[in-house]
Amino acid sequence: MPTSYKGYYNLAGQFEKQGEIERAIGYYQQALSINPDFTDAHHKLGNILKSQGRLTESAHHYRRILQKDPNHIEANFNLGVTFHLRGRLDQAISYYRRTLELQPDYVNAHNNLGAVLLSQGNFDQAISHFYRALDIDPNNAEAYNNLAYALISRPHVASSDITRALELARRAAELTDYQAPEVLDTLADCYSRNGRVDLAIQTAEKALELALVAANEQLAEQLRGRLKRYREQTP
Which is the CATH superfamily of the domain at 158-235? Predict the structure, then answer.
């Protein structure tokens, strides 16, 4: 067995690559028991725990990094993600903004910050972040989808916004090879608002099929409801 924290860290990395996640967690913890300030191990362990939905534990490791290095970009961003997923949106906003102070072209921070602002009804601010994400990465499917959704979600949406949203949603669908159910959901909504109900139904049916394959029952249930509404629009 390793005798140094770096040895345990390297062994953990090997198990992580092999998909033996629980063993990887154990060895990252061993590395930290020897060197509690080992930033790389905190980061790796935080990411694994976040992917498992163990958000409070994950946040602890990102905080430990920031205690040592408040300007650590990934730790600021990922701590924002943990708050976002826990519904603590004001704290998520704070860490996403801090991430963008440190790295203004961080695309995922723009996307995530825009999504939180949109959920709070701050449409204009959200839209500006999605446009900024596309300025940085013109092929970012998530930003196209987010921007399309934001435009059609505004109160008293203008017909020009619906037309623009449809263009954006189509581009997002192209970039994801029409295989992302969340993107197809947005595209179907845009078709419906554009008066093209037949395409809305067809697209939503495809989205529902993909959501079921992915075992995303929450999205599937939402799509069933929207499909019912689209079908009721047909003559």
Answer: Tetratricopeptide repeat domain (1.25.40.10)
